[in-house]
Write a structure and sequence with these properties.
The structure is a single chain. The protein is α+β, with helices and mostly antiparallel strands. The protein contains 2 helices and 2 strands; from the N terminus they run H-H-E-E. A two-stranded antiparallel ribbon has the order 1-2. It is elongated and about 70 Å long.
């Protein structure tokens, strides 16, 4: 499973029993083991709701959220490698 890029177990069973492989003895009575990497890969994040809930500020720039992060792939014109996100709440 791991060597075949985490393909599902049904595809491995079908491959082994199709006669296209040599030396793949698969026991269909055994329950496939749980794969932590596959479980993590299938998890999803909750989407951000479009409707704002909670109190908002009354004036501009009352609350500002900023996030400064490194971006190693694309340098700026000055050669800097970072991105700053600024969100006015």
């Amino acid at each position: 499973h791991r060597h075949l890029r985490h393909v599902n177990f049904r595809a491995i069973y079908d491959l082994a029993h199709s006669g296209n492989t040599i030396g793949m003895d698969i026991d269909l009575s055994a329950v496939p083991p749980k794969c932590d990497d596959c479980i993590l890969g299938k998890q999803t994040r909750n989407i951000v709701p479009n409707v704002w809930t909670g109190n908002r500020v009354e004036r501009k720039l009352g609350i500002v959220h900023m996030d400064l992060m490194e971006h190693p792939d694309t340098p700026s014109a000055a050669g800097n490698r970072y991105i700053m996100d600024i969100i006015n709440d």
